[in-house]
Amino acid sequence: MNSRFRSTGGHPPHRPPAGFSLIELLVVIGIIAILLTVGAVGMGGITKGKNLNSGVTTAEALFAEARSTATGKATRACVLVDINDPKDATNYLKRVLIAYEDLDPATNQPVKDKWVLTSRGATLPDGVFFSKTYSKGGSDGQTLTEISLSGDNVKKQYEGKYYAYIFNSEGICTTPGATFVVGSGVRTGSAGEPRTVGSAKREFGGFIVWRNGNTSLFRSPDQAGIPATVTTF
Fold this sequence. Notes:
This protein is an alpha+beta fold. It has one helix and ten strands; from the N terminus they run H-E-E-E-E-E-E-E-E-E-E. The chain has one helix spanning 22-73, and strands at 77-82, 95-103, 110-117, 122-123, 128-130, 145-149, 160-167, 178-184, 204-209, 215-217. Strands 1, 2, 3, 4, 6 and 7 form a six-stranded antiparallel sheet that branches. The chain crosses the membrane at residues 20-41. It comes from Luteolibacter ambystomatis. Keywords: Membrane, Transmembrane, Transmembrane helix.
């Protein structure tokens, strides 16, 4: 018997398999990178969609609360959207408040334009902004009502200008057909105005407010009046 097989019980010595070549490793790394990128983009789209839906749901709840406040206190109440400082990344087109017209303690009658905040309100989710361009103040497409908060009954951090959706003491929307539209966007540095990017250029949602105060969700960007090419937010 050949002596070169004795140490292995008669079988040829085992040779370890050859490793991957550099080119093969680079190809595998490239494929993994592509898959991770595709996955990240997909997850980003899902997150944006969830945030947008959450923003619309939050706004609907605030409208219902404002209407309830109006009927409960027998005075005007409104939903307010912050339009103060475009450089305020926290609140500009994101802070949504509820206020009601204060009552005179002597007569229990509303004091015109003396607004009192009911709470700290809510802030729209990350990447979601109120749309000044596509939100309308009524069925005829008029601009939104603008009011100012000031005075001893308003804390300084809430003073300033707001778009207002107003309900009368019976819970009737004073601008029936008004629309509340939000969209997915980004802010760059201190530029102020949000802008749409990439696949989110038509990622908008919202609802219409009827005379009785009820709301109806838009089923598509077309119903919200979003054009094929969005140039302003």
